[in-house]
Amino acid sequence: MDSLSALAQHLGIADLFGRGFLSVVVTFLTAGVFTWLFIPRLREFAVQVGWADQPNARRLNTEPLPNAGGLAIFAGFIVSVIVAWALRPIVVEIVNIQVLAILLGASLLVLVGFIDDQYGLSPLSRLLVQVLAAVLLIVNGLRIDFNAIPFLPILPDAINAPLSIFLTILWIVGLTNAVNLMDGVDGVVGGVGFVVSTVLLATAAQFPDRAAAVVLLAGLSGAALGYLRHNFNPSRIIMGDAGAYLFGYTLAAVSLLGTLKFSAGASLIVPLIVLALPVLDTTQVVIGRLARGIRNPLGHPDKTHIHHRVLARTASARRTAVILWTVALACGMLGMAFQGVTWPVIVATGVLIAVCLWFVAHRRVRAQKIETGRQASAPKDA
User: Fold this and answer.
1) Where does Mg(2+) bind (predicted)?
2) Where in the chain are the domains?
């Protein structure tokens, strides 16, 4: 028992049987199990009421596919956070307010995303709501400080304050849309969301004052894994804008909560490394569309995203997802190294992520084979 505790401490776990670590495990498992079990029932209801994503230029499905997965992810996330709060209340008042601000902003974007999935909203209305959700964080003390960005000059407060607000809005809105634009191949956003959430979770857990970030990330990570069980190709449900907005907004907001701060100067560099895949994808898409003369680059879907390019080379949605998971994990481990996390923790995190992804992918492939076998044998039994 002593050797096990010593190993845990070597991996950054102060008390293997303590309330803090157990609450994180319970939060993760609650989110994962709830989402895993809830999705089949939600899918049945979505099929009945017609909540489905029609084939379009961005997606690869050739027939309507239930698109309410984001509601299940959100439900699993919220339930797990409630459980975590019951197990280990966060007593710091300012942190409570900031966490509630993140949850409120995420709820607002999930609602708007779901309405857009089912009925369609104009790009301007979606943008306005995203800006409002970003402002909600700013007024509660969550923002990027321009003067904390390394290698840039220190500006007077009269200039720094509005510039910092602009950068914060750009970070929140940009990442929210970046994750949404990646959602074009089965399993990509769910897997990348799980990788990034778990990497940030492992990083935040190294610091005693990051309890709020750990709780949110544990819930988001578990919900992503539970959803991925049903979304790995061939997908039975997709998350839609509601789920993509939840991942993008929450990850962007939690990074401002202090998850990755090991010094004021590196507060923006590390999350950029961990979230490099969606950021680079959106950047190259926007530049490419502007170069082709498209005035509204976010309002003209095409197949120039990284996942589309990888899919064209692999001709396999499964291989495409695995490749992008690997890239996201590599970026995450690099970000952990910049954070100063020890190599045993980095390696252990990478192994844990790989095992979890293999497990849910294997379960989905196995379930799909069983479904195919039943369909093939059905006429013989008739």
Assistant:
1) 180, 241
2) 2-368
